[in-house]
């Protein structure tokens, strides 16, 4: 949600090039961030792999489908998805805060994974990721917490695994119709790694 607008509106990169660049930047930085989460055992591997494999199919399909849309339409879809997700995150059910306060600690990973739901959600989120380069943690974390039932710290760690998988598939889907600016990608990736380390 940050990389594509930064490349397009601050660096004047063509939108499809910005999207393919974001796959590399976000994929590598997420892979680096995944390591400490894995060491803390806050990654639900089973849920993440099922969600991620389904998401990879969606991301590859979305990346190929994007070839048929104009850059302006892709950026409009990007904005619409970002706005919709932001509004959903602002909306809270009545009494949700009280319920959160009373909730007892639970394990990071659920004992039972709702596979059909995870497969569907993974494919849907992956499709959005592959098409417009959006769908990192800001889409995956709510999906894992609200639909899969992971606690927040488990959802954050697991989302990093899924982001890496989706970025790889989205990059493959875009590879036939979008050029990758290698020097720019290396510079932005280096900056993202330093920034994420400091963060």
Rg calculated over all Cα atoms: 17 Å
Structural class: mainly alpha
Shape verdict: globular
What does the main sheet amount to? none
Distance between the termini: 17 Å
Mean pLDDT: 82
Helix content percent band: over 70%
Beta content comes to: under 5%
Q: Which blocks of ≥5 consecutive residues have pLDDT under 50? A: 93-106
Secondary-structure element order, as H and E?
HHHHHHHHH
Explain what you see.
The protein is mostly helical and about 200 residues long. The protein is about 75% helix and about 0% strand. Helix 3 packs parallel to helix 8, helix 6 packs antiparallel against helix 7 and helix 7 packs across helix 8. The radius of gyration is 17 Å and the shape is globular.
What brief labels describe this structure?
globular, 199 residues, single chain, 0% strand, 9 helices, mainly alpha
Compile the SSE list and pairings.
Layout: H1 3-10, H2 15-39, H3 45-65, H4 71-90, H5 96-102, H6 115-132, H7 137-148, H8 152-174, H9 182-198
Quick recap:
With 199 residues, the chain is an all-alpha fold.
